[in-house]
Amino acid sequence: MTSVARRPGPAAPVRSQVPGVKPQAVRSKAKPGFVLGVIAVGAVIVLALWWQDTTSVHGLGEWLTGAGRILGLLCGYGVVVLVALMARLPPVERGVGTDRLARWHAMGGRYVVSIVVAHGLLIVWGYAVTARTNVVNESGALLTQYPDVLMATVAGFLLLGVGIVSMRAARRRMRYETWYYLHFYTYLAIALAFSHQFADGASFINSLAARFWWSAMYLTVALLVLWYRVAVPWRDYVRHGFRVAGIRDEAPGVVSVYIRGNRLEELAAEPGQFFRWRFLDRSLWWSSHPYSLSAAPGRDMLRITVKDLGDHSRALRALRPGTRVWAEGPFGAFTANSYAPSRGAVLLAGGVGITPLRAMFASLPGRVTLIYRARSWRDIVFREELDAIARARGGRVHYVVGSRAELGTDPLTAPVLLSLVPGLHKQEAYVCGPAGMTESAVSALLAAGVPRRRIHYESFEF
């Protein structure tokens, strides 16, 4: 196994920054409430667009058609919102957090797919009632006589397909790469449906201003996606020259990858954040995966630690030093920006969820306690490092090891946490691990009196 030329030693407590590097300027952040407010205002404007164009509604057919038109406009707006949420806009990523954005995106996707189906059904039904025919004949007429309806129908089925494969039951049965690339069909669906909106949408046919602003909305989001998902990563690739420096085994099925680069302090990465990594190796170049930093970022070195959970993570062990790396980031709001050292902090890690918390354990000032949950001692990662950090900073590490059956109880209940961390209710809490462990830990923290605003968590799900 290749070893690295230089491995970072135990980190001394610092204020979430690289020692010797000047503090970064305060970066702008969009708060969750502000983002939701902007989305809601946009939805109201969309409804106003329909209202302005509709002078009156008479009869069942027009009511059905009107409802279908409203849903069509909301669908056209909704897909833009879904793309914008995952466009990796830095202020949104830092203020809302990738974990929450992903949940919003998944929930919004379900709404949009439902609206697409309802839009099609209501339009066909409304037109059939107005024409005094049945829905089968009217469906045929719409597909053959109205411009771009066939393309819009294909787009609707593509969105429905993406929605189906995004269901939790379906996701569990497919590889991350398969799920990820199937999502690109969303862009094809948006492109197919766009011309249909102008060709058949009553709100756009006779309004040049409506067509202009609607197009501007789509174009703006498209440019943001291209800038932050293509141009910025390419700029960073050229500027920083990311390369694999070496690989180190940490535990059975767990490896650390050291990545060297130039002027890495310019990235302003913080402990707790992650990058999307694309290793330009023959077998890995086509796939990017999100991995958290497992050590405080340095001037010329970053470290990630990965558990063997699939083909991609398993292949990282075979990476050669010198392999070029395409990195997008840093991402995530799982940082200590709201942390006050006078309060202290408790870090709860589950399994490989230790990776971002190890970096935070080494860098958070004040009184910090780490609780590390694992099924067996073989699954503990960074034990020597964690113990050394605890000694250097005067912190505490509690290893909670064993299954529930072996321990005879749930090891992450409120009474257990209160016994391990005196004054827990006054502290900031950071939780990272599998979804089940995260949910259980958050519930226990709330029961222990920790305010929800002081509980920060990140779970590993796609």
Mean pLDDT: 86
Give me the side-by-side strand order of the main sheet: 9-8-7-10-11
Q: Can you count the beta strands? A: 11
Main pleated sheet: 5 strands, parallel
Please give the count of helices.
17
Extract low-pLDDT stretches.
1-26
Provide the β-strand percentage band: 15-25%
User: What global shape is seen?
Assistant: elongated
User: Which class of secondary structure composition applies to the elements?
Assistant: alpha/beta
Structural Rg: 26 Å
Count of the domains? 3
Give the fraction of residues assigned to helices. 40-55%
Features:
462 residues; alpha/beta; Elongation Factor Tu (Ef-tu), domain 3; Rossmann fold; 3 domains; 5-stranded parallel beta sheet; 17 helices; 11 strands; 15% strand; disordered N terminus
List the helices and strands and how they pair.
Blueprint: H1 32-53, H2 59-85, H3 90-96, H4 98-131, H5 135-145, H6 149-165, H7 168-171, H8 176-182, H9 185-200, H10 202-205, H11 208-240, E1 243-251, E2 254-260, E3 274-279, E4 289-292, E5 301-307, H12 311-315, E6 325-331, E7 345-350, H13 354-363, E8 368-374, H14 383-393, E9 396-401, H15 404-407, H16 414-420, E10 428-433, H17 435-447, E11 455-459
Parallel strand pairs: 7-8, 7-10, 8-9, 10-11
Antiparallel strand pairs: 1-2, 2-5, 3-4, 3-6
Helix pairs in contact: 1-2, 2-4, 2-9, 4-5, 4-6, 6-9
